[in-house]
Amino acid sequence: MLAEIGEYLIECPFELPGVVPMPLRLCDLRRHGLLIKMFSGMRSVDTLVSKMQSNRVIVIMNFCNICARLLMKQLQLIGAFVMLLPFMAAGTEAYAGCALPFQLSIGQLASASQNMGNFSSLDSCLQRGAPAGSVNGIQNKSGEETVDGLTPLNDGQLVIGATNQPARVGGLLAGPGISINTGPGSIAISTRARGNGLYHQVMSETPSSMSTGLSNWLNQGGSSVADTVSGITVTSPSAVAGDNISGRFFAAPNSPYSVTALVAATMNSTGYAGVGLGWYDGTNKLQAIFYQINNGGRPRIAVSSFNSPTSWHHDDYVSASNSFSQPIWLQVTDDGSNVKLAFSQDGANFLTVFSTGKASGFLGSSGYSRLCFLVSPHRGTTVGTVMSWALSQ
């Protein structure tokens, strides 16, 4: 039975015996926490090496990095028998902890099956816990004894957390008016200039379903929606008889607020086709301001209330058929107690055509809860487009 007589740290310079592409220096292992314990009859490094070569030494190491695998392989080449204790938390590489099936103490005479069982278990653990993935990848602990590697990141990519799931590789998305430029190790975020066109001071960036929140269907039927170069476009097939309004909506923000939209309608109608901006009570009722054809004649402005998207109830306001040009700005406002609807030809000066207290309004005090963009294809296929969108609070 061997008796432990002391602990020795190997001093530089000393190279591990064996054939290696680049010799592994034991002094380098010392920097990573390597401790070699000496037993009786081995009082020097030379004696240790000779005992290794004669296969009559047990070396117990206690460390936690890639040196383990390299040293084991080289000791195997020269016939030494090696036992590795479970890893500690030192070193630079990411390794999972390894548990040995047989716990042995100093002075214990272990059987060959126990030693080989520990060796096999530790070798398997090293294989599972070794850094994974390709060059420049990021390590991710995927289990008690396993390490996975994330895909190497490209310029501007980030590692993003996911609750109770492994981290993921992702990036930033540019919202309206925002530019994102990336490079090696850098992300630059800036605002985009709106230009100096005729209406640039009252125009928003090109709206989309995501940027406006108009992401829910109201009575879709055969209608379709698309984010285009000019804005959000809703196309509704002709309703030959009666109303069949389609639209997109989202939950209204807390009052007070106002929404201003530049809208356009592409249509050829013999009825009252048009586009509108207003409120939906979440069940059936609607109230909105419309730019619409007047029974196949010249365009007009109207504020209309509906029992449902397919059932008109009454008009709250109807303008003269003044052939209003388009695109045209429509605006809805909620101050908490009252709502009002307005239109403008220049996007800066608005004419309010209808207002009411919410409590006495057609939708009731709690019914002005969802903002909507509406398309009415009354006796003519109609394409409605939101070309500018601004929410002010």
Largest sheet: 7 strands, antiparallel
Give the CATH topology of the largest domain.
Jelly Rolls
| Contiguous runs where pLDDT drops below 50 for at least 5 residues | 1-96
Helix percent band: 10-25%
SSE topology string: EHEHEHEHEEEEEEHEEEEEEEEEEEEEE
How many distinct helices? 5
Query: Residue-averaged pLDDT, rounded?
Result: 75
In percent terms, what proportion of residues is strand? 35-45%
How many structural domains?
A: 2
Structure class: mainly beta
Rg is 38 Å
Report the top-level CATH class of the largest domain. Answer: Mainly Beta
Q: How many β strands by DSSP?
A: 24
Examine the secondary-structure arrangement and name the CATH architecture of the largest domain: Sandwich
Spatial ordering of strands, largest sheet: 11-14-23-16-17-18-19
Shape: elongated
| N- to C-terminal distance | 84 Å
Describe the structure.
- With 393 residues, the protein is mainly beta.
- It has two domains: 4-129, no CATH class; 209-392, Jelly Rolls (Sandwich), CATH 2.60.120.
- It contains five helices and 24 strands.
- It has helices at residues 26-31, 45-53, 67-77, 112-129, 209-212; strands spanning 4-8, 36-39, 58-61, 81-84, 138-141, 147-150, 158-162, 165-170, 178-183, 186-191, 216-218, 224-228, 231-236, 246-251, 257-267, 274-280, 286-293, 299-308, 311-318, 328-334, 338-344, 351-357, 370-376, 382-392.
- It has a seven-stranded antiparallel β-sheet with strand order 11-14-23-16-17-18-19, with no helix packed on it. Strands 12-13-24-15-20-21-22 form a seven-stranded antiparallel β-sheet, with no helix packed on it. Strands 1-2 form a two-stranded antiparallel ribbon.
- The longest helix has 18 residues, at 112-129.
- It is elongated.
